[in-house]
Amino acid sequence: MATEEQLRLSTIIKSCHDSLRMLTKQYGPEKAWQEHIKDGDRLREYAEAMHQLANIWEHNTTNQDLMARSRVKWTIEYCMAYFFSERIYLEKRLREQRLLESWEGYDCSQCQYLEQMPDKIKVLDVGSCFNPFGKSENFEVTAIDLCPATEDVLKGDFLKIQIENLLEPIMASETNEVISLPANYYECVVFSLLLEYIPSSDLRLQCCQKAYQLLKYEGILIIITPDSQHVGKNAAIMKNWRYTLGTMGFSRIRFEKLPHITCMVFRKASDPRIAQRWSELHKESYMELSIDIPQDNKTFDDD
Ligand SMILES: C[S@@+](CC[C@H](N)C(=O)[O-])C[C@H]1O[C@@H](n2cnc3c(N)ncnc32)[C@H](O)[C@@H]1O
Questions:
Q1: Which range of residues forms the domain containing residue 236?
Q2: Quick check: is 300 in a domain?
Q3: Which of 40, 49, 99, 190 is most buried, by the most CB atoms less than 10 A from its CB?
Q4: What is the pLDDT of residues 36-60, one digit of tens each?
């Protein structure tokens, strides 16, 4: 059962999300976002509360319910299996090669692969807040957030950040904010509880398109989304995410529903046509290019 302190922290987080949703209804997502990011006090209060709450969730080793929420553990374990212990990326590569060769008029001549596996995986953690992956010895993490809770997180609005051919991130000298990130550079991009913060489907789509540009071929986008419902409740929404991300060149390679979160892994296919063709073949009549979330249809009385 939640303690009084947990309830206090959750209320701060919820009121920040409610305020942004209310602004979005009033002004539309773009203007609402500009207003929202000006409110430094609210962003700082949120960052502090999120950090404290996550510490309670992540460091609890006695309560099974809290442990089940461990998105950090899940993400690290999947990355280790994908890149190192099980080398899942090679298995997926082979599968993609076989698929392409089985389609008439296609071959692997346009495929692009991870050249060499580095000792440490380059991870971009967007909306990192408190750099939960910073201590993982197998990761070299670039952690960014609108309002960092800890000093090892870079400040930056992912929606504004440019993507260029660079060797490392570029910071603005006066504000010490990230202004550009390198294209085709990261093996892994993490959106852990990020997309629900972003106020519209179009802006979430922009986030996913940016992740695609930032990743190397065969790199992975890990999306963790809060979901306390049973697995079927949001199935149509999740299938639509898969369809939409497929049109960008991402293949969904893992879907796991845990008690309070859904964890998904999207691979930047070695040839985007593989994922795009999947989407074409599996498109259902209700599907459209969008990244909707259940909260989009909530009224404020639902909470
Ligand atoms: C719910 S918290 C998740 C924190 C952490 N990733 C975790 O899983 O515990 C969402 C975070 O995303 C950040 N965020 C939201 N939109 C962002 C954007 N456009 N650019 C950078 N950070 C953003 C917020 O400031 C907030 O810290």
A1: 69-282
A2: no
A3: 190
A4: 999 999 999 999 999 999 888 766 6
